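ESCALATION

Customer reports they have been waiting on this structure for their group meeting. Please prioritize. Original submission:
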Amino acid sequence: MKLARIRRVLLLIFIIIVILPSIIPIATSASASAPASARPNVSMEEDPAVPAGSTASSQSSARRHKRNKGLSLSQLLRKYPDTIKTQGPRRKIIALTFDDVPDPRFTPQLLDVLHKYNVKATFFVVGSRAEKHPGLVARIIREGHAIGNHSYNHPEFGKLGMNEFRTQIIRTENIIQALAGYKPRLIRPPYGDISEQQLKWARAHGYKLVNWNVDSLDWRGLSKTQVRNNILSRAGKGAIILQHGGGGRGSNLQGTIQALPEVISIMRKRGYSFVTVPQMFEVSKSK
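Update from on-call: job pushed to the front of the queue and completed.
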């Protein structure tokens, strides 16, 4: 009898240790408890839209609902060619663009160079910086440059939910409208990153998104020669050139400031004219 009882106990232990885990995989509970950001290819439905400025719920929903990135940028360009642009028409025109403005360390120096050479450029404004330095935004407008929306505090759009994305755009355009008298049509996504859903919203509300096809890489703190060569080696018909007029703490944009006169002079000798992005695409600067 004792031997039979021992066998039954051993059989029960065998069932618990060997058979049950194969029936109820422990990976299920592990996957369910893992944060959404740690799970690849997870797509979740966005929360209902909330009025612009209501950031608390949108921030929490963005953290809860990290979605699949979906189409790549090249795929979005092919699918929405009238909404997102990286290059202008194949004519001898060039658009100089400057991101992350205004910044009192660098923006005035760039404006001085542009004024000296009578070149109009396009500045993509960060809303939080415009609030701190409204006089610089006023100068950009007064000297005839175009302005675009570059978000409120420079997040990666592809990681935001729709509510927070909308807030970034609308909050910044309201700041710009108060300073410039119009809501800009142009948006440049920070890092060039945007989702299809965000792009479709922008198209439905009359915006145009502008990335670039020539990157100066000036944000790396490159020398004048490096910045100049990065631009001149790639600039051609309809080029949209990415440079920066502002940066984070410790950034150094002297390379782009010092290279700008040579870039302008050499491209003019090559027969090119400088235009703003709205001029390049023959669209209104306002929405």
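Sent to customer with the following note: The longest helix spans residues 2-23.
Escalation resolved.
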